């Protein structure tokens, strides 16, 4: 293969743009602009890291779940998140990066994950509220990604979104049960809602104004809606669910605006988001330390798997009867 000359590059870029505008999928072997590849690697890696780090806040409640049923539901949910991380790392690898390198980037702080996971889970009601609000916000963000222009990412998102619906549903069902319980249970649901509402709104990111990155991601059909459009959609979807549940959303400015046909709501504390993004949230250090430790403890598994793969490739591996 010879290097493309500038004139060729312009033609390739033209073809690429026509391809995405016709809503066709870009596949790993297709030519793509370097900046498109870099944007996708950054976005998919950040998404994968969020799934993996996102296992921690709820994972601590698995051994403290109040019943066997709650424990098995939570266990299934946290395992799903691990699976989401794996699909996404695999999607990123189709762009020419290595998963080990992405993990290094995460534990060395060179790549980010969603700030929402830097908040603590103080009671079992937090498990329900995370399902309802955090997975609910993730669904709003992720459903449009099922139509992202990059094929492996879009296909991973289809499966992920199906599982996210279950996550949201199990959270809401847990909260419904708790709201029908004792005064103490109802208070603990309200307390969890008070703590998670604003961070959930921040999950959509700050208002973008005329951000050139957003415009470019939209032209590439990676992003379909602005952060503010998605945040509005989430609020409009969530308010009737909160009413049904019997909890109050902690925003005195929240009200229906008949003219807009949408809810007005207050402004999140963006300074808080920037602090958490800079690593100064309540649990940033703990999350990374845990991930680093888990990665180190998995060293022997990776070494054994690599040695086994090499043996298989050389034909010297002992085949275990009945093994897959
Ligand atoms: Fe997930
Ligand atoms: Fe989820």
UniProtKB/TrEMBL annotation:
Q: Coiled-coil stretches, from where to where?
A: none
Q: Does the keyword Oxidoreductase apply?
A: yes
Identify the Pfam families for this entry: PaaA_PaaC
* Highest taxon listed in the record's lineage: Bacteria
**The protein's Enzyme Commission number:** 1.14.13.149
Q: Which InterPro entries match?
A: Aromatic_CoA_ox/epox (IPR052703), Ferritin-like (IPR012347), Ferritin-like_SF (IPR009078), PaaA (IPR011881), PaaA_PaaC (IPR007814)
UniProt entry keywords in alphabetical sequence: Oxidoreductase
- Annotated PANTHER family: 1,2-PHENYLACETYL-COA EPOXIDASE, SUBUNIT A, PHENYLACETIC ACID DEGRADATION PROTEIN PAA
What GO terms are given for molecular function? phenylacetyl-CoA 1,2-epoxidase activity
Protein name, per record: Phenylacetate-CoA oxygenase, PaaG subunit
Q: Name one GO biological process term.
A: phenylacetate catabolic process
Q: Which NCBIfam families match?
A: PA_CoA_Oxy1
Q: What class of enzyme is it?
A: oxidoreductase
Q: Name one GO cellular component term.
A: cytosol
Q: Which organism is it from?
A: Actinoalloteichus hymeniacidonis
């Amino acid at each position: 293969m010879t290097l493309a000359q500038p004139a060729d590059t312009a033609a390739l870029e033209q073809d690429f743009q026509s391809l995405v505008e016709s809503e066709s999928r870009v596949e790993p072997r297709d030519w793509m602009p370097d900046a498109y590849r870099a944007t996708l690697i950054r976005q998919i890696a950040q998404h994968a890291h969020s799934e993996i780090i996102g296992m921690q806040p709820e994972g601590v409640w698995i051994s403290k779940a109040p019943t066997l049923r709650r424990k098995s539901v939570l266990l299934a949910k946290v395992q799903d998140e691990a699976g989401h991380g794996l699909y996404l790392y695999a999607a990123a690898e189709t762009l020419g990066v290595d998963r080990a390198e992405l993990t290094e980037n995460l534990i060395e702080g060179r790549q980010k994950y969603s700030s929402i996971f830097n908040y603590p889970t103080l009671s079992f009601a937090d498990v329900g509220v995370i399902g309802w609000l955090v997975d609910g916000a993730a669904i709003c963000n992720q459903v449009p990604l099922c139509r992202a222009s990059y094929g492996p990412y879009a296909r991973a998102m289809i499966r992920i979104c199906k599982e996210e619906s279950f996550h949201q549903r199990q959270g809401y069902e847990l909260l419904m049960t708790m709201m029908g319980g004792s005064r103490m249970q109802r208070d603990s649901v309200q307390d969890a809602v008070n703590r998670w509402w604003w961070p959930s709104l921040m999950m959509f990111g700050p208002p973008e104004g005329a951000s050139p990155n957003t415009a470019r991601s939209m032209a590439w059909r990676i992003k379909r809606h602005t952060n503010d459009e998605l945040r509005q959609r989430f609020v409009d979807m969530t308010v009737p669910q909160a009413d049904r549940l019997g909890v109050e959303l902690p925003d005195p400015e929240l009200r229906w605006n008949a003219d807009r046909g949408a809810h007005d709501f207050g402004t999140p504390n963006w300074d808080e988001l920037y602090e958490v993004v800079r690593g100064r949230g309540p649990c940033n250090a703990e999350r990374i330390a845990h991930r680093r430790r888990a990665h180190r403890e998995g060293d022997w598994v990776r070494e054994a798997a690599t040695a086994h793969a090499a043996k298989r490739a050389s034909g010297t591996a002992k085949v275990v009867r009945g093994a897959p």
